[in-house]
Amino acid sequence: MIKKKKNSFSVHFNKDYPSIVRGEGIYLYDDQGKRYVDASGGPLMSNLGHGLKEMAETIYNQAVKIEYVFRMDFTTPEMEAACTGICEASNGVMDRVFLVSGGSEATETTIKIARKYHIDAGNPSKFKIISRWMSYHGMTGGAMNLSGFPFRRKDYTPYISNNFHIPPAYCYRCWYNKAPETCNLECANALENEILCQGPETVAGFIAEPISGMSLCGAAPRLDYFKRIRQICDKYDVLLIMDEVLTGFGRSGKFFAYEHFDTPPDIMALGKGLGGGYFPVGAAVTNARVVDMIANNSGVFAPGHTWAGNPMAAAVISKTLEFLEEHQLVQRSAEMGVYLARQLEALHSHPTVGDIRGEGLMRGIEFVKDKETREPLPPEKKFWMVLHELAQKLGLVIESSFGCDRGQAGDQVMFGPPFIVTKTQIDDIVEIFDKVLTQAEKQIGF
C-alpha cells in the first residue's frame, strides 16, 4: 500500500505520527483504536481534560451569537466578563487585562506594556528587559530574545538581539556551587549587578517564570527568592514581570504560582490553561499602578493582533473559570500533585534519576549519569528522546526536554496531566513510566 503524502509541517519530518481522532478525560485515541494516557496535558495546557461537551457548547453558542469584533472599534460583554474574572481570581491584586491569542504574544505584550509605562512616566531611556538563562518565554522574535533556553534558541541566533540575562534559580545544579540552605541568594542578587552594569536608567523590567517550564522542568527557587527580586526591582524602578503562561490558572496547585512566594508581580503573562485547552488564548495582566500610569498620561496602548480579544476566546475563559471553581480543580491540582510527587519518589531506585521536583501537577525529573556528582548523561545518547518514543509506544504521552546543564547536556521529563486525574490514573502513569525508564536505561547501556 502506497502511503499518501502529507502536506503538513511536523517537528520530525521523517516520523510517522499517530493520528488522534478523539479525546476523553485524560485519554487520547488514535485512528487505529490505540489509547494513550495524556500525562503531559497537551502539553500542560489541557487542564480540564479532553472531550468536555460544555466547553464545546460554549464555543458553539458564542459563535452563533457573535464570533468576532475588532477590538479597536468595540468591546463585548464576553471580553469584559473574562477580564473581570481574571482580576477577581487574583483577589484584586491585578487590575487590567489585555487579551491576546497565546503565550508568546502574552510575553511580548508584557514587555511592550513595561516600555509604555516608563515612557508615560517620563523615563523613555528605560527599555531593556532582563531575563534569566535557562528560561523559556516563547518562540516568536521578542519572546526568543527573552528566553534563555539555548536548545530552542540556537537555530535562530542571527535574529536575536538585546540579550540581558542573569543566572537561573536552579538549586539542583546551582551556577554558584551553593546549597539553598546556606546560600546568600546569589542568583537573585545577580539582578542588581546586571541592572548596575546596564545602567538603571536603561532597565525597564525583569521577567521570570515563578516555577520553570520545559527549560528546567519544574525547578523552583528558594521561597524568599522573589522577595529579594522585588526589593531590587523597586530600588531601581524596574517592573517585575511574571511569566505564568504555564503555571497560571491552577497548574502549580495555586491559582497563580506567584502565590507560592507571596510576591505579586507588576505585570503577568498568561496562556495555556487560560482557555482550559479549548481555545488559543493568552493575556497580559497588570496591576493598578501600571495601568494608571498609562491611563493618566498618554491614555493609549495600541499593540495587538487582529484575533486578540475575540468574544469566542473570552467566553471560553469565563467558562474555564466557572469549571475550575465548580469542580474545585485548583485545590485538586494541589492534592493530586502531592500524590503524584509521592508516587514518583519510587523512581529514585533507578540509577539515572537525579532529581524530582515541581509543584502541583507540574512535576519534573532530571536524569544523570552519576547521582553523586550530578554528571549529566552523554548528550549523544539522546536519552530524552528515547524516553519520549518508548513512552508513546507503551501508550503514555510525556513531555521531555534537553539542555538543562547550560544547554550542553541534561535530560528531563515533565508530568502535567489534566487536573481531573485520579489517584488510580496517577498510579498507572507512574507504573508505565517505570517500565519505560527501565527499557530506556537498558537501551543506552545502563
Provide a short characterization of the protein structure.
The chain has 446 residues and is an alpha/beta fold.
Please name the defining characteristics of this protein:
Aspartate Aminotransferase, domain 1, alpha/beta, 446 residues, globular, Aspartate Aminotransferase, domain 2, 2 domains
Characterize the structure shown.
This protein has 446 residues and is of the alpha/beta class. The strands form three sheets. Strands 4-10-9-8-7-5-6 form a seven-stranded mixed beta sheet, with helices on both faces. Strands 11, 12, 13, 15 and 16 form a five-stranded antiparallel beta sheet that branches. The model has no long low-confidence stretch (mean pLDDT 96). It folds into two domains: 20-51 and 328-443, Alpha-Beta Complex (Aspartate Aminotransferase, domain 1), CATH 3.90.1150.10; 55-326, Type I PLP-dependent aspartate aminotransferase-like (Major domain) (Aspartate Aminotransferase, domain 2), CATH 3.40.640. It is globular, with a radius of gyration of 22 Å. It has helices at 41-44, 53-65, 77-89, 103-120, 141-146, 150-153, 186-198, 225-235, 288-295, 311-326, 329-344, 383-393, 423-443, and strands at 20-24, 27-30, 35-38, 96-100, 128-132, 165-166, 203-208, 239-244, 267-270, 282-286, 353-359, 362-370, 375-376, 396-397, 399-405, 409-415.
